[in-house]
Design a protein that fits this description.
With about 450 residues, the protein is of the alpha/beta class. It has 13 helices and 23 strands. Strand 20 and strand 21 form a beta hairpin.
């Protein structure tokens, strides 16, 4: 990304209308990777053409995968799969650039661990500061050789992978992480024997659902363990990508904040591992209903209807609920500013190693607007019902922070300017236009 952009927002009379959120970011990454590892030509519809997902597709193209975008918006594509172990070394030594996408880097580490060539994955400044040892250690135990420049622990990008034969193993993760779990399972597809993973709490299970649907040797849950038997080649398939619930959460919160609103969010992924924000909003008193539930491509999909004007109350968000809404916590913090009482977020230390330290950043930026927020080691305490005012706030290069601050501005007295909004292109390029469409452009 080049240059810098900003948004200026303020209160609106109401948010009205129907909106189809863009394709789910997590599923888009996984669909194009799994299609590249299949035998035959797969079609993906609803793909999210944001920078992060395009990084994954671009890397797979450099590894010999033919990918054809079928529409101008790049939401439909065909992928000619290479089969397990069929990716080829890039034609140049230039690193495979992951940009700001942690999902790209972690999942591709799992894929590349089994391929017999040497390649480097590089990153932007933000991603290069994020922890990778939680992925590189289990992959190393399986037989992969992964090195970081200037250090021996392979903690930070750039990371050089020299793949080769892998052996299946069992891993108990210290932190619930769908990215780490998925990287291990993708490596396990190529490994000799069985690879198993158990998490301390359930994280989103999109990879598992797709592996089961594809007949790729998935081993269903048993006493918290899931796994995959290596060497199961699988055929190409159709991958319908539902609407992203993390994107939907911003508009659900916006409708809850603006009193006379009524917003319908259609075709949203309702995977149980992704609906924690619905649970939290329901507990806060948001007028939210779910309709038209159905199954598509291994995922539950439905519509979310939110009406404004409810009296909101502070709640506690902690424990097993946190992995189900980890990406939505910034916007829930913004919503909590409008709720009576205190909202306490705990067990969310993972927020400190996202694109920014989202605990510190959200507390500081909402604080500029007059919010009263106490920072905790693994979360925050937000005193709701305190009037907030417009201010100049900064994204800190974090797409979810930028969007959460935009939603907070809807409940503030006076205009708010959010700076550094170019980062939103990593996950939701059309966010501001979609928000404007619900508010009549005001």
């Amino acid at each position: 990304m080049t240059g810098s952009s900003s948004w200026t927002l303020g209160r609106v009379a109401a948010l009205k209308g129907e909106l189809k959120p863009p394709g789910d970011k997590s599923i888009s990454h996984r669909a194009v990777i799994l299609a590249a590892l299949a035998r035959g030509t797969s079609r993906i519809d609803g793909f999210l053409p944001a920078e992060d997902c395009l990084r994954t597709a671009g890397i797979l193209q450099r590894l010999g995968t033919s990918i054809r975008f079928l529409d101008e918006g790049r939401t439909s594509l065909e992928v000619d799969g290479r089969g397990l172990g069929g990716l080829s070394a890039p034609s140049s030594a230039e690193p495979l650039y992951c940009g700001n996408s942690g999902t790209t880097m972690r999942l591709m580490l799992g894929v590349l661990a089994a391929h017999p060539f040497r390649v480097t994955l590089s990153a932007d400044e933000s991603l290069a500061a994020r922890p990778m040892r939680r992925v590189t250690e289990p992959l190393g135990a399986m037989g992969a050789r992964i090195e970081a420049a200037g250090e021996g622990q392979a903690e930070h990008a750039p990371l050089t992978v020299e793949g080769g034969p892998l052996k299946g193993m069992s891993f108990e993760l210290r932190v619930a992480s769908s990215q780490v779990k998925s990287a291990i399972l993708l490596a396990g597809l190529h490994a000799a024997g069985t690879t198993r993973v158990r998490e301390p709490a359930a994280s989103r299970d999109h990879t598992e659902r797709q592996l089961a649907r594809l007949g790729a040797g998935f081993i269903p849950p048993d006493d918290g363990w899931i796994g995959v038997e290596g060497g199961h080649q699988y055929a190409a398939a159709a991958f319908p990508v539902p609407g992203d619930p993390s994107a939907a959460a911003f508009f659900a919160a916006a409708a809850a904040i603006v009193p006379r609103s009524e917003v319908v969010l259609t075709g949203v992924c309702l995977n149980p591992g992704r609906t924690g924000f619905i649970t939290a909003m329901d507990r806060m008193g948001v007028r939210l209903t779910v309709a038209n539930q159905r199954e598509e491509g291994g995922e539950t999909v439905g519509d979310i209807i939110v009406k404004g004007g409810a009296d909101l109350k502070g709640i506690r968000i902690a424990g097993d609920l946190v992995p189900r809404l980890i990406d939505e916590l910034p916007v829930l913090a913004a919503l909590a500013c409008q709720a009576e009482g205190v909202t306490v977020i705990r067990d969310a230390g993972e927020l400190r190693v996202k694109e920014s330290d989202r605990i510190a950043v959200m507390a500081a930026e909402l604080g500029k607007m007059g919010a009263k927020i106490g920072v905790l080691p693994d979360g925050m305490a937000i005193e709701g019902g305190v009037p907030i005012h417009g201010a100049e706030v900064d994204s800190h290069g974090d797409h979810r922070v930028a969007m959460a601050l935009a939603i907070a501005a809807l409940g503030a007295q006076g205009p708010t300017t959010v700076t550094g909004t170019e980062c939103v292109a990593t996950s939701y390029p059309g966010f501001k236009a979609d928000l404007d469409s619900l508010s009549g452009g005001r």
